[in-house]
Write a structure and sequence with these properties.
Pathway: Siderophore biosynthesis; mycobactin biosynthesis. InterPro entries: Acyl_CoA_acyltransferase, Acyltransferase_MbtK/IucB-like, GNAT_dom. One of its GO terms (molecular function) is aminoglycoside 6'-N-acetyltransferase activity. This protein is of the alpha+beta class and 176 residues long. It has a single domain (2-174), classed as Aminopeptidase. The protein has helices at residues 11-19, 21-27, 33-45, 78-84, 107-122, 138-146, and strands at 2-5, 50-57, 60-69, 91-97, 128-134, 150-156, 167-174. The strands form two sheets. The protein has a four-stranded antiparallel beta sheet with strand order 1-2-3-4. The mean pLDDT is 94.
């Protein structure tokens, strides 16, 4: 798999993916050009402390993945920080498979495994990656488990999608 930094040329693809039912169910994201620019432009410009990537499999875009340091978003991540006892150097990732035809084929697990190694390689001071997942998304948390993450907690965290009750499972993978 290849992880290439997102560019503005990817915005129509991101909007299409975010609008597809299997992604929209859990990302609950606006897909207008203004919303895509607002939420992904800062990573491109370096004005946000997150790093966004298009995931390609054999040169074909199949998904999206991002990383950030949890403490860079301490206000938004306070529940996660407290619940997981997140160290100051911890990262978090978020991701989705954009093409529905590629779901259920192990791509998510491979994407998480390879991106985890990428994160530890480019962030040598990071001791752990901590990932909250809405409990109602078993495909996501099973992919984390298959990628070597360990479930460390279950608790309420404000959900991204208001139709969810906020019950999350939290996974962690420490640097080996």
């Amino acid at each position: 798999m290849e992880f290439r930094r997102t560019t503005r040329a990817d915005f129509p693809l991101l909007a299409r993916w975010l609008g597809s039912p299997h992604v929209a169910r859990f990302w609950n994201h606006e897909t207008t050009p203004e919303a895509i620019e607002r939420d992904f432009g800062g990573s491109i410009d370096g004005t946000e402390p997150s790093f966004d990537f298009i995931v390609e499999d054999a040169g074909v875009p199949v998904g999206f993945i991002q990383r950030s340091a949890i403490w860079d978003y301490a206000d938004e991540q306070q529940e996660l920080i407290t619940l997981s006892d997140a160290p100051r150097d911890a990262l978090t990732i978020d991701y989705f498979i954009g093409e529905v035809a590629t779901t259920g084929k192990g791509i998510g697990t491979r994407m998480i495994q390879e991106f985890t190694e990428h994160c530890f390689a480019v962030c040598p001071s990071a001791s752990a990656i901590i990932v909250p997942v809405i409990a109602g998304n078993p495909a996501s948390w099973r992919a984390l488990e298959a990628a070597g993450y360990e479930r460390i907690a279950e608790s309420h965290i404000p959900p991204d999608n208001p139709i969810d009750d906020g019950w999350h499972v939290v996974y962690r993978r420490d640097r080996h």
